[in-house]
Amino acid sequence: MAKKEYAFYPGCSSQLKGSASNYLTSVNTMCHKLDVKMTPIPDWNCCGASISYAGGGELARHVMNARNFALSEQHLPGQDVVATCAACWLGAKETKEKLDASSQLMAEANEALKEAGLQYKGGTAVRHMVEVLIEDLGYAELGRHVVKPLEGVKFAGYVGCQTNRPFGIAGESFENPMYLDKLVETVGGEALTKYEQKVTCCGGALAFSEPDKSQKQIRDIVESAYDAGADMIVTPCPLCQANVEVYQSEINRKQGTKFDMPVTYYSQLMAVAYGATPKQAGLDGHIIKPKKLQEIAVKVVPAKKS
Amino acid sequence: MGAPNELNLTALAKYSNDFLREVEERVDEGEWVKMCMQCGVCAGSCPFGPDWEHSPQKIFMMIRAGKRQEVLTSESMWMCTSCYNCVVRCPRQLPITQIMHGLASYANRLGLAPKMQPTRQWSLQFWDNCTRTGRVNELKLTLGLYFKDGLMAGIRKAWEMRNIGLGLLMAKRLNPFELLKGHECKDKAGIHRMLKKAQEIEDRRRGFSK
Amino acid sequence: MKSAAYVCGGCGLGERLDTAQLAKIAEKEGKMELVREHPFLCSAEGVAAIRKDIETEGVTHLALAACSRRAKTEAFRFDGAALARANLREGVIWVRPDTDEARETTQEMAADYVRMACAEVKKMKLPAGSAQTGHNKRILVVGGGISGLTAAREARETGYEVVLVEKQAELGGWAAKLWKRMPEREPYAEPVDTGVDKLVEALRADPGVKIYTGATLAATGGAPGRFSASIALESGPAVTEEVGAIVQATGFSLYDARRLTEFSYGASPDIVDQAELEALARKANGGPITRPSDGKEVKRVAFVQCAGQRDDSGKHLPYCSGYCCGTSIKQAMYFKDANAAVDTVVIYTDLRVPGQAEDFYRSAQKKGVTFTKGKVSSVTPDGKVHFRDLILDEDVVLEADLVVLATGQVANSGVDIDNPEALDANGAKPVSILNLGYRQGKDLPKLRHGFADSHFICFPYETRRTGIYAAGPVRRPMDIAQAKEDATGAVLKAIQAAENAELGRAAHPRSGDLSYPIVRLDGCTQCKRCTVECPFGAIDEDEKTYPVFNESRCRRCGTCMGACPVRVISFENYSIDTVGAQIKAVDVPDEFSEKPRILVLACENDAYPALDMAGMQRAHYSAFVRVVPVRCLGSVNTIWITDALNSGYDGVMLMGCKHGDEYQCHFVKGSELATYRMSKIDDTLKQLALEVERVTTLEVAITDIERLPKLINDYADIIQNKIGLSPMKGFA
User: Fold this and answer.
1) Beta-carbon-side half-sphere exposure of residue C252 (alpha carbons within 13 Å)
2) Domain ranges for chain A
3) What is the CATH number of domain B6-116?
4) CA angle C684, C689, C694 (to 5 degrees)
């Protein structure tokens, strides 16, 4: 019996060979080390992300989320739904709050769900992975499993938008959330708390449709990390990770910069700190290699008696 | 499908409540538009702010001034990246992100949104893609985006992004076999029925259909 | 008289100073008959020792060399003995460094203060109190609108009788003409009943309130405790009422919208002001409001805010009246509540909704009232409103069935006593309201924009006429909620004035002061300076043009004493001599000692407390200043300057409160008068071959804790290093 059990909602990018497959790998490793059991919701579907509003009406998008809740209630009763993707978490949480608050909307959603033979009773909690880490486990517990503190590595904690606004993690400030810095420090890294672009938008979904505008944002995000003295950027959102990592070559090409800043997930940091191999931590899933993490990951240290 | 034609053509009296009421009935969170106090914090907080032809503050005022055509044909609300910065700072707590998406969606529904608006096309493609099987087929989605302006444009774009594509492929974050078959839900049929029903219910409630 | 001096050694005084030497000075130079030292004078034991001396030794005059007169006032309270305090703690040891080099000058400073206190107390007499006390405690309320009615009710609930005089035939003022008013309680969402009818009914039924309607004041005279009001009635002969204090709550008139020619008021019946809108609403009685021109229901109404207000051009009112945005919001709700389909547009420059009215504004938005920021340039008689939408940055022509102009409040404050021929903001010649028989004029002095002067920064409701309090829009623009609160405060002050008058005491700011100006009429030259310069018009004239002092109208500032060129005015415990003796008691070293003497005359309201607080912060200033507290700079008689300069003082600093339109001077005019008087002595100084820097007047605030030591040190620097010591030393 694992210490904690959750209904896992990975989201479309965190699938095998998906654009955030390395996130998935590192989350699985991290949870294994923390004795947290994450069971994927059977037949979970896409949430629609923040971009589907032109194609899908309001109720249609709510129903996509409600289907996941209904499946979770059915197959994993009593467990919180935990999302690793920021957009999935935000959209699902919004749906949950809207449906819980309006009996009319809830009735309409269930009327639609009936067509798929499902029913959403209400009350399922929707959490983000970092909420679970911070609130259910706590920093002290997270620190207990560290066998390879990430000493000497400077991290710019790029929280971004959607884990931060509008809901926020663990009651932290919208303008200057500290949870990512605290996670970095918990695993022994050096958190650059004064990183100026901590909550700047990377462009999100519009990185695809408005690349120039988005890349202007990404440039500021990366440049600021360099200014703060960062060795790498760490982030909790799969779209941010992809946008900020993948477009650096484009920005270099078009704007003459020489960016080469690795962008990693908090779960990768934790996996490495907990003693995972580079593969287990998904470190092989990068275009810009996080060398400093790889070096720590291949170090051999005596096993810690826990 | 589509609103009564009179609304599309009538020149609405200035500053009358007609367009405001239409927005309240038809647009997500539209009932909040009248609560804006014109402070401008949203306009100042937006990351793509300078790229909006009319800032969110102005859009709200334009709705109250009855400028139906200008608002619905505007590209402005398509600039929203869903960063929610405006939402957390608005002193009246307007859900601005949702209203902007709602206006965009409504404008699209009426056929008034600019056809070549890239985010509009992207949004439609995304929904189409994820509802087809219940999960996003990332490769098809990306290629669909590249090729939306035609074959030549698509090839050029794909070639431009080849290094990135290759990098992702090596990082095992891109699956070429998705062209054939990507991740899918088992109960595709159920999902399709469910979405159809949801749209029916909402259309009826909003007055798009009887 | 038996005099005694007490030197305290507590709070570090014993360690920093040679208290034995100070005691010796009190004995030999101060010529005090009894001198005692005590290690802890404010202790129960120390105070008991003083009391014992008063009882058994017959001590009548005490000089305490200890802490500031502002400290330990309860412990050192000796009714029946005159008291002077040498400020050795806040004024000496706390503002000087505790070093060996400083010890000598610190001791000299302390020694001088001991001399000064001994000299001062000998010139003091215990105030006997005035025989002129009035005993009437009735309150006259002038004005029967919501402010006056509230003042009357609050006076009754506190147990005082009221005489209410109202010019109109009906009570209720503007409030009685409204359909509804803005809410004053949670949830602040809907217009509510004004409540005026109930209030009027209650007062009419109350035997303790005498109501005169259709009435004005033909003449008012007297003083707090003994005012006499002659009331002219439309319905019969005049009536005289005796009262103890007066509340003037005469409210406002609406700015005449006909002066707004650009808004076509008067050219169309469908362009109205807010008062007319209320009348239309009353007529509609909850149903849809109709147009005056054709009786059709209004479909689109536009509200033009700041109509003839906040105007920089000088043509209209320059200020904001505060209540008009809330009123337009309320009136827009009248339309929406009767028919939600009516378009209501409020065109504002800035939306100002004081108090809890932000919720009311939100409620209006919920009902669909449209607000837009715009500058209206004109309204044509056919109801077209031309404005520039400042959010959308474009010129707009809005067509409306009805246009409502939000015009402003013009105070009904009577005649401008400084300029009796001046017209009011509506271009009308004001009629006197109080018809005071005072030498200085018939009505309350005004300050800005025609509103009655009420001491904004320190004491609202306090006008420049003791015993007469201004309440409501007559003193500043305000709405009903603020007016009710204002009236409550003003009538409480009126009650306080009447009660104090009976005891012969000043009410404010010198609370409890029993002294009053005593004039030696045989020396008076009838120059009228005291009469004209008294900030409170407390002095009238008799047939022979001698000044007539009305003690209960006096605030004991001493401006009259400062004004009198022949020095015949003084107070029993504060006189030309009490200060003059202090100045002359200081030991002024010769010009070779390089130890200047700088006299600081510090007003007791701001400057002296600031100096004390600088001491509490241990901020250091020059060892060469000698501070004499004065009641107000207005009380500074130029003889003190003369005496100081003749005695060889090297500089004189006068420190008083800020004056001007934003004045803080607690006695309104004192600081200003001192500055004016001092500006006249430059010529005299030049004639004496003295530099003009030797006398300087400064405006200070009670918060200038850091600034004052710096000013003093800078001035000492000028004396020592720029102009040098006074050449008058040794000539005394």
Assistant:
1) 28
2) 4-130, 147-298
3) 1.10.1060.10
4) 70
Own/partner long-range contacts of B2-8 (Cβ < 8 Å, ≥24 apart): B2/B109, B2/B110, B2/B111, B2/B208, B3/B110, B3/B207, B3/B208, B7/B68, B8/B110, B8/B112
pTM metric for this prediction: 0.88
List per-block mean pLDDT (blocks of 10 residues) for chain A, which spans 306 residues: 87 92 95 95 95 94 96 95 96 96 95 96 92 96 95 96 94 94 96 94 94 95 96 96 95 94 97 95 94 91 63
Position C368 scores a pLDDT of: 93
Residue from the list B20, B35, B65 with its beta carbon closest to the beta carbon of C372: B65
Q: Which residues contact C365 (CB under 8 A, 6 or more apart)?
A: B34, B35, B37, C371
Give, in order, the Cα–Cα distances in Å from C712 to each of C95, C273, C372, C505, C622.
Answer: 12, 57, 54, 36, 7
Summarize pLDDT for B12-36 with one digit per residue, the tens: 578 888 999 999 999 999 999 999 9
Q: Flag if C392 and B15 touch (Cβ within 8 Å).
A: no
Check CB contact of B28 with chain A, cutoff 8 Å.
yes
Pick B15's closest partner by Cβ from C365, C366, C372: C372
**B7 pLDDT above the threshold of 70:** no
Given a cut of 60, whether residue B8 has pLDDT beyond it is: no
**Shortest alpha-carbon distance between residue C507 and chain B (Å):** 46
User: Is the ipTM above a cut-off of 0.90?
Assistant: yes
> What integer pLDDT is reported at residue B149 of this predicted model?
87
Q: Which CATH number fits domain A147-298: 3.30.70.120, 3.40.50.2300, 2.60.40.3760, 3.40.50.11810?
A: 3.40.50.11810
Cis peptide before C187 (omega within 30 of 0): yes
> Do B185 and A45 make contact, defined as CB atoms within 8 angstroms?
yes
CA nearest neighbour of C554 among C503, C513, C524, C516: C516
- Inter-chain residue contact B13 with C392, CB threshold 8 Å: no
Predicted local distance difference test score (pLDDT) of residue A3: 81
Sequence ranges of chain B with CATH classification 1.10.1060.10? 6-116
Residue A174 DSSP symbol: S
Low-confidence stretches of chain C (pLDDT < 70) are 731-732
pLDDT at B210: 64
Quick one: pLDDT at residue C457? Answer: 75
From 3.40.309.10, 3.40.50.720, 1.20.1050.140, 3.40.50.150, which CATH number describes the A4-130 domain? 1.20.1050.140
pLDDT of residue B21: 93
Within 10 A of A98 (CB to CB), how many other CB atoms are there? Answer: 17
**What pairing do the DSSP bridges indicate for beta strands C518-519 and C569-570?**
antiparallel
Q: Is-contact A124 A54, C-beta < 8 A?
A: no
